[in-house]
## 1
Amino acid sequence: MAIHSYVPEDPLEETELPEIVFVGRSNVGKSSLIRAITRGGADVRVGKRPGVTRWPVFHELDGELVLVDLPGFGFMKGVPRRHQERVKDLIVEYLETKDNILFAVHVVDAKALPEIAERWERRGEIPIDREMFQFLNERGLDPIVAANKIDKIKPVRFEEHMDRVVEALGLFPPWRQWLDTVFPVSAKTGEGLVEFLEALQERVRKAGHPEFARFFRTR
Ligand SMILES: Nc1nc2c(ncn2[C@@H]2O[C@H](COP(=O)(O)OP(=O)(O)OP(=O)(O)O)[C@@H](O)[C@H]2O)c(=O)[nH]1
Ligand SMILES: [Mg+2]
């Protein structure tokens, strides 16, 4: 497959091609995951130039389907709050405006999410990931959750930890009842990627594009 990675001038106007959007907080591993599922084919560094870092990066597969690496929302180290707000607005506008999105992949840091969410709840606030997950559902974007960085979770704690991950998203535990929605993965070790790729195949078929399943082969 041929992959063309680029930063579009105006992401809202850019393309009529079907898209799969990758959304999630900063640093959860959106770009790493895109790199992993394309077996390194996607050049995820294109967005890393100063000034364009916080803009969506498009990875066009065979000129037919676009994987959109949206900028990370929420806290970003060393980035002014005003800018963080602008990024969030851009993401919401993007998800509200575009009508060529097949579905969304909501990437979370499975290791860090429970504690972050529990901290927000103690302050009486709705965790931002729960808000985003609900928004994606309401918007009809049929989100699939990539619970990334599972290599950082102690195996003996895994089940209990994943229950807290789904709770952070507003879903009821046990997490195993969400096996068609929540996929524990590690972009670093490759764990869980086969199941995640199979889910992507199923989703593009469901979205009426069986021809795109070839982009997500498991070998
Ligand atoms: N241990 C571990 N680290 C990971 C994994 N995936 C990504 N990382 C690391 O997490 C950091 C962030 O990864 P990125 O892929 O840049 O995250 P991102 O969501 O694209 O971040 P932004 O573009 O800033 O929003 C990097 O240091 C990665 O090496 C994983 O599965 N396990
Ligand atoms: Mg990134």
## 2
Amino acid sequence: MRQGFKQKNIVIIGAGFSGILCAQRLEKKTARLKNISITLIDKNPYFTMRTEIHAAATGRGKPEGITYDLAETFADSPNVSFFQDEVTDIDFENKVVKGNVNDYTYDYLVIAAGSRPNFFGIESAQENALPFWTYDDAMALKKHIKECFEKAAPLADEEEQKKLLTFCVVGAGLTGVELAGELAEYIPMMCVKYKLPQGLTRVLCIDAAARTIPNLPNKVSTTCSCILKELGVDLEMNAKVVEVKPDALVYEQIGKTVTVPSCTVVWSAGITSETITCKAAETLDSRNNRIVNLESLQSSDPNVFVIGDNMYYVAKGKEHPVPQMVENTEQSSVLAADNIADLITGKEAKRVYKPAMHGCMISLGAKKGIACLCRYRQPVHDPAAVPSGAACQAGDQRLLPVTGLRSRKSASHREA
Ligand SMILES: Cc1cc2nc3c(=O)[nH]c(=O)nc-3n(C[C@H](O)[C@H](O)[C@H](O)COP(=O)(O)OP(=O)(O)OC[C@H]3O[C@@H](n4cnc5c(N)ncnc54)[C@H](O)[C@@H]3O)c2cc1C
């Protein structure tokens, strides 16, 4: 231990993509300093690979393949302690994070609590739609689909069967179209298993926007919509959900009210920050429940850093905040950790966050997908969070309709 070096406590709220990477990077950067304590807190004992939950919900890949035990992940990290606890409050003045189980004092705090579904104040959606964000949501959807088929199989009434076998996805953004693509492959397999004609089923994806994945360029939307239609998904655009009933979805489209009898409405229409971040946003500078960062990724409180989905950071020369996507979580967690390590060793937090997004890939079922690539190492174009047209300048990105694509982590094998 260095003479006179006081113990420094770093607390990280959230062990998602960014929290884990930040803890690992901090551990590496402070390896030579013995008196460092890194506390990583998550309400779950496991990390969820969110990017794969739509596959796990529809029988592609094993559910246990998308969760990783956090205590095990950090078992060989002497400076990192993982605590399963739900953070309920932060006392910024006294530098204490309050959980259901413990209180945690900090010198530096990292907020990395991620997002949750946004129901935009539609109460009936909150009550009756299935959210789609967590591992539990994915498993609940899988169980629900199975129950719908089990109920439909012995029925004689075709209308009742159709109601049970109509699967609606609200939201045609990245998450919505990916889920719709998976469902379009999964539902026919379930028909075979339960000996039901495919004609009784329907996969519907609806959005208030005029086109699918409206934050990406037109060409990407068009390709995406074509692939989904080929897979058998019904797309309803310019359709604004007004009510979700236990057995129907009601939307307005071009002045008409449409009611779709359906026992399954999955909500992937938008996200907002997790509750603890919304609470922190009442004290720290914030925009739309995301916390505004300085270039160093510090918030308006210099002892508090914000990374991943929770950050509201507009890179120099850009108009829009960084996208709530994994690439931003990776880059922000590294920079925040490096700046914290500098502060601990008496330097200034001088590093400036310059995100460089490479694009995104959209999987539409096990075999098809689209890659939307920004030019390598170009500064962020925020492909997921900016209005169409502004996302990528001509020549900045290439569009690759990819067939035969295999997702990174899940195989194309699917079980009904
Ligand atoms: C179906 C789906 C598909 C996606 N696909 C892609 C994709 O293909 N590419 C891409 O780039 N992005 C994708 N995303 C978005 C991506 O998952 C997020 O951008 C990323 O997870 C954000 O990382 P994060 O670390 O900020 O938050 P998260 O990974 O969400 O982690 C936050 C953690 O904080 C914990 N937490 C929250 N509140 C508390 C509390 N009060 N106390 C303790 N712990 C708490 C949570 O349990 C969680 O573990 C997808 C998301 C979904 C849902």
